[in-house]
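Can't paste images in this forum, so I'm doing it all in text. The chain is below; anyone willing to post the predicted structure tokens underneath?
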Amino acid sequence: MTRHVLLVDDDLELRLAVDRRLEETGCDVIVAGNGEEAIRLLSGPLRIDLLLTELRLPDIDGRELAWAVSQKRPFVRIAYMCRESPPGTLDPIEAPILIKPFSDAALADALMRAAPLRRTAR
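Text version of the structure:
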């Protein structure tokens, strides 16, 4: 079964590399360069099973993007990417965090461990 992944990162080179790696594993990938673009894409009939997003986007925090996505699509699984371990805990707590640069094995593991966002409104 094909997984439909929304990949969000403002780094074009990294986005292209991760897109290629995901497609090699059989994923159908839609890419966005920022959070606003990702939210616009989700306003259409786009099928998404998993959101793989950078935590530090120029326009919106990756956690806030995950929250916005989960409001529109509550069963979308979440995984994060960043250059260094973020301070504190993320939501969902068990959501995988890929520290860049990451291996194909780490990416595959993150895809398997990704979980839907479950938190109460602030």
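The chain has a mean pLDDT of 89. The beta strands are 4-8, 28-32, 50-54, 77-82, 97-99, 115-116.
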